[in-house]
Amino acid sequence: MIILKRYLAPILLFALLLLQACGGGGGGGGSAPIVPSVGNSASTDKHDPFSGGFTSIQTTINNESSVTSCDSLVGPPAGSTLTGKVTFQRVPLLGVGLSYGAATSAPARGVVVEAVSVAAGSCSNTVVATTLSDGDGDYGFLLPLTQAVCVRARAQMYRSGLTGGGSWDFQVSDNSRSNSPYYLLDNNPATVADAPIRDFDAGSGWSVANNRYTGTRSAAPFAILDSNCHALANVLTADSGVSLPTLNYRWSKNNNEADGDASDGDVGGAYFSVTNKLSGSTVIDQAIEIFLLGDDGFDTDEYDQHVITHEFGHYLSFAESRSDSFGGSHSLEDKLDMTVAFDEGWGDAFSGIVLKGVDSSQLLSTEVYQDTYGFAQQGAFKFSLENYSDSSSTDVDGWFDESSVFKIIYDLFDPDEGSGFDRLNFNFSQLYSSLVAIKNTKAMVSIYSYIDRLKTDNAGDAAAIDTLIANESLVVNDKYGTSQPLPTGLVANNNDDVTPVYKTATVGANTSVCSNTQFGAFNKLSVARYVKFNAPSSRSYTLSLSPTNNGKPVIEVYKSGSYIGGGERSTPSVLSFTLTMSSGEHVFAIYDGDNILDDAQSNVRKCFTLRVN
């Protein structure tokens, strides 16, 4: 899978590609921190994240002020002369896999609908009026009865926010066709008087007789946007004026699990991606994408609502808060770097929270994360967001465990089901506001920084929060995990590389730091070690990292999540450099250059002596 490697080196690329691939665990990928990176200059991927997509909205949206959310029930604008409904075939997940025989017609909510002019008896691309479908899929135009038009629905949820309220732009396009956008077109060049009602129903393309897709899968882009609507509607309950950046869903029937060129559909899995376009070291543009699978008979994602909303959870963290995750492959049995565990666990829990109100005719259970796959999409990878238990003998709860994170966050939201330790029932707004508040946390974003902030924001419930997290072997005294004991049952070849969660460096003192692949390489627990450093004054500091057993030293320096400097050595030699730091708290991420490779050997421990002068 395509994985971001956090090497520090001179940036030579105009386009800096930050990609995170999904792993087995949550069925979804991670979000991308904006840090210097190399490793993409030799990429054979021809996918251009800045190309394609929909053109800008050409006319005023006639009902934007009333459609304040994708689920607004307002009906067509008063006086509409041309009306209709946009629907799509929703295939539910009622048993083990998708139930194509139980497909129903569902409204395409909050999508852009355009009336285009007619030229020489054919539909043109000239837009004469624009509206949004409402929560029932209804739309309307105020056009002269004699005007000849065609109507088309974009696979796009859009709101400019110019009339107040929130703004967003969610698009679905085909990465295997140069990011060509998806439309539904009525192909009926007629006057408004002759055809005043024009309904759309996007079909699934599934053939019951052939037990496979045989027709155009028109419903897929609108099913993706409908899951997106569940997520957006929840965000708007917490922040009705939220301004969200453009998000491009890349879906194609060609998208498969092979790693390779996304322009051919070889995307590797569902994942979230951020690409920076650079001019020198300045970011001048940014493309935000979610890739989803569409490979019939192997793995498709268009009806996997948990997968789609999981990825939206990463997008939300990136857009409104912060992610420090390495990304990369992961499973529910892995012991992960705490930044990865939190990002994935948040995405899992978010999916269950925002799907809580979904009709039971669509999902067997919103509390059970489900990702379909296999012949006729009749298999499903699934786990309980509330009661998941790893059956392996090495299962241990903690800050490094994706399942611990999602169970904590989901339990904070979900009412107590008799467990005794879950006494809380926070609404989404409470969970969201604390997530947004840690955007500038001095620590790395992890379950510690999140729970510490949640306790601050909900001081009256702090004791109940402590009771809940103790069930997952967590102690949160502050954003750094201070006084966190080693979880019972965690088998490590060196406990000092696990706790304390953060080491502490002071001016003029030596600090021993080790990078250890005892739980696996790259994004696993103890590969990167975090060191907090409180700069006593604003000045230039000399940082040195000396290997004690042939390690290749790498260090990244952050303040409030912003990368301010660092360095690496490609050979086992001393790394030393000067860096201007302002007074206050900083975090150093330290690791071995070989251990961060995805295919590094297990149980390799490389140690360094850190000194700050």
Notes on the structure:
The chain has 613 residues and is an alpha+beta fold. It is built from seven helices and 30 strands. The chain has helices at 219-238, 305-320, 338-354, 402-413, 428-437, 447-457, 462-470, and strands at 15-19, 82-90, 104-107, 111-119, 122-132, 138-141, 148-159, 168-174, 180-181, 183-185, 190-191, 200-202, 206-207, 212-213, 247-251, 271-279, 282-292, 294-295, 299-300, 368-373, 379-384, 502-505, 510-516, 529-535, 539-547, 553-559, 562-568, 575-581, 584-592, 605-612. A hairpin with a 5-residue loop joins strand 20 (368-373) and strand 21 (379-384). Helix 1 packs across helix 2 and helix 5 crosses helix 6 (447-457). Mean pLDDT is 91; it is low at 1-21 and 23-42.
